[in-house]
Amino acid sequence: MTALAADANRKTRGTSGRQVGYLMAASQTIYKGGLVMLNGSGLAVPATDAAAGIVVGVADEKVVSAASGSYWIKVRSGESFLFAASSITQAMVGVAMYVVDDNTVDDAAGPTNDRPVGVLEEFVSTTQGWVFIPAGGSPTGVAA
């Protein structure tokens, strides 16, 4: 799959989620429906398979930032979201999923840096699955 280049109407399940606002890094575009992570400075950026960063959820809106720390993005977590996947299987249900890009997840064998997103809750196909992202994201990882 590929990173988002436009807003995505991400399907979600659950009503117990929460919305949190995060300050954004400078010169970033975060698309609605994209995975959001906090960089080493604690500022929101589109999620990538970076060496550092904490996934905090899914963008509830599109925001284009100019100056660092001057723009806020609303992010949802504590729900299940339907994501594109690189190569998942039914046997991975209950297993941790990791960032490939702001639109795609995979098991630990896929991405290089293994930034946790959440747990595969339901297998749809080898290229799609429902992933539960804990409230507040996955700062210390998720159980595999």
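Above is the first protein from milestone M3; the second protein from the same milestone is given next.
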Amino acid sequence: HPNKFGGYIGVGEFNGDEYEWLYRRWNNMLIRANDPQYYSKYHGYSTDAYENVLIAPEWLNYNTFAYWYMDQVSRLNPNYSYDLDKDLLYPFYKDKTPDGKKCYSPFTCVLIPHELNNILTVNKFAKSFDSEIEFQRYKLKKEANVRDLAQDLYKKNAISEIAYQACM
């Protein structure tokens, strides 16, 4: 039976209390994609990042999402806290989704350390620039910082090959 955000538990091993943290990550994804105003109100996010976002039908099933998540995180360095990212791979798949929408799916998302996610999103829209030259300097510096951090994280097995390539 679907919850109010369209998801359902499904059948599998991820139904116990020890996976409550994983259920919260899945449920937050559902809320962000299906009710961005709610998520913005209680978490302080801009709704722009979640307008017109799709969730793949298989990820409406919590257990399917949980198997994917646990498989991905098992391949990465356990010393990091990971965020589910739908934006990093977007330039590579945007032509394949309806109306170019961003999508939560096993093929469009990656797990990235919170530290990298912050660098990718901080000041994305908030910073204003007095000139195009100032903006270009900022952009080049930010891109260099992302590449440097991605290289460091990749050496530590904290990001996947595909996430590393997208950052480069």
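Note on the second protein: The beta strands are 53-55, 82-85, 102-104, 110-113.
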